[in-house]
């Protein structure tokens, strides 16, 4: 007789937003998880299906008032709000996965500078990027889920910085990263309305996006004292979901593309959700999946172009959160994601 699989209970605080809804969809098909409660203060009393009819969930949104009955809590809240929830949940021994930026940065000054607030985290949680920190995540009880832009950029660059590159040195990185409108969240904003965005595209927060210090931290340096020149230009385009990042890298010396491919293949050899593409990837290749596609597009005289694509709501948010949860619970990290 097969041993009955353990079932963990999970609740989502901030379940009415796009990332929260994506979490509901993924957890509903997870064989080891039972959704216990969905919390969303402004939507309290409404059925989940009123907001998202395509997802057959019969739960009613509740107001969170300190309930700690679940095994796992996902925080899908706007930046700044998770700071008030994490200490209490950790004190009661709960597993916590925070999808906001509140607990990602070790440097408190950088946190205050880039997130524009005086509040700072009581604790820095384990950074939840499985491709870089799988063992640490498996032993953690609380995770800070990476940002969507950060995921697409870090996974495109990590082998150059963390892959024993054999003397390969990066002098500069210039990033242009394009996000679909869902990356801005579900709240109504005039500048994101159909009449403003249809047929339009624009850059914003050029050189000062809040994911910048997170990216630098994961690559072993900092935004305050960087070891290489880094410029990020985020852009928003009139499609719903997906992030497309073009990484222009300047190496200290020319390097054969075959050597770079070998480096990337080795680094991501056991990463089930990173795919090295022979051709140039597209957003449509990854939408509604937990994959990050990486294309090594061009190398000439030390200039390297890397292109990545992810779904910002899945690999950039809810999917990566479930991937982290799987590792924390000792499950196959692909569970409910393939």
| Helix count, DSSP H or I runs of 4 or more residues | 10
Q: What does the average pLDDT come to?
A: 93
Q: Quote the CATH topology of the largest domain.
A: Dihydrodipicolinate Reductase, domain 2
Q: Distance between termini?
A: 27 Å
Q: What's the CATH architecture name of the largest domain?
A: 2-Layer Sandwich
What's the quaternary structure here? single chain
**So what's the overall shape?**
globular
SSE string, helices as H and strands as E: EHEHEEHEHEHEHEHEHEEHEEEH
Number of strands: 14
CATH class of the largest domain reads Alpha Beta
The unreliable regions are: none
- For the CA atoms, what is the radius of gyration? 20 Å
Query: What can be said about the biggest beta sheet?
Result: 7 strands, parallel
What proportion strand?
15-25%
Which structural category do the helix and sheet elements fall into?
A: alpha/beta
Instruction: Give the CATH H-level superfamily of the largest domain.
Output: Dihydrodipicolinate Reductase, domain 2
- Counting structural domains, the number is 2
Question: Helix fraction?
Answer: 25-40%
- Read across the widest sheet, the strand sequence of neighbours is 3-2-1-4-5-7-6
Catalytic activity: N-acetyl-L-glutamate 5-semialdehyde + phosphate + NADP(+) = N-acetyl-L-glutamyl 5-phosphate + NADPH + H(+)
EC number: 1.2.1.38
Subcellular location: Cytoplasm
InterPro entries: AGPR, AGPR_AS, AGPR_dimerisation_dom, AGPR_type-1, NAD(P)-bd_dom_sf, Semialdehyde_DH_NAD-bd
């Amino acid at each position: 007789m097969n041993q009955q699989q353990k079932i963990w209970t999970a609740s989502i605080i901030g379940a009415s937003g796009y990332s929260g809804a994506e979490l509901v969809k993924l957890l509903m098909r997870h064989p080891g998880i039972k959704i216990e409660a969905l919390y969303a203060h402004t939507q309290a009393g409404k059925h989940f299906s009123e907001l998202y009819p395509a997802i057959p969930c019969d739960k009613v949104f509740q107001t969170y008032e300190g309930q700690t009955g679940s095994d796992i809590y996902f925080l899908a809240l706007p930046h700044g709000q998770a700071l008030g929830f994490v200490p209490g949940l950790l004190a009661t021994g709960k597993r916590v996965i925070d999808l906001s930026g509140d607990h990602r940065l070790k440097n408190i000054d950088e946190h205050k500078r880039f997130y524009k607030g005086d509040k700072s985290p009581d604790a820095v949680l384990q950074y939840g990027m499985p491709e870089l920190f799988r063992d640490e995540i498996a032993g953690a009880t609380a995770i800070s889920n990476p940002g969507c832009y950060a995921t697409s950029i870090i996974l495109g660059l990590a082998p150059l910085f963390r892959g024993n590159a054999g003397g390969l040195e990066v002098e500069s990185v210039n990033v242009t990263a394009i996000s679909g409108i869902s990356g801005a969240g579900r709240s109504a904003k005039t500048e994101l309305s159909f009449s403003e965005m249809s047929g339009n595209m624009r850059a914003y927060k050029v050189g000062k996006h809040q994911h910048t210090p997170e990216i630098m931290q994961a690559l072993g340096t900092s935004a305050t004292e960087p070891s290489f020149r880094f410029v990020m230009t985020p852009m928003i385009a009139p499609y719903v979901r997906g992030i497309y990042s073009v990484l222009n890298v300047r190496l200290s010396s020319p390097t054969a593309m075959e050597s770079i491919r070998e480096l990337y293949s080795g680094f991501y050899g056991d990463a089930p959700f990173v795919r090295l593409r022979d051709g140039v990837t597209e957003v449509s290749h990854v939408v509604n999946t937990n994959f990050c596609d990486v294309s090594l597009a061009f190398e000439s005289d030390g200039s390297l172009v890397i292109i990545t694509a992810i779904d910002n709501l899945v690999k950039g948010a809810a999917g990566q959160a479930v991937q982290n949860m799987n590792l924390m619970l000792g499950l196959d990290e692909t569970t409910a994601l393939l």
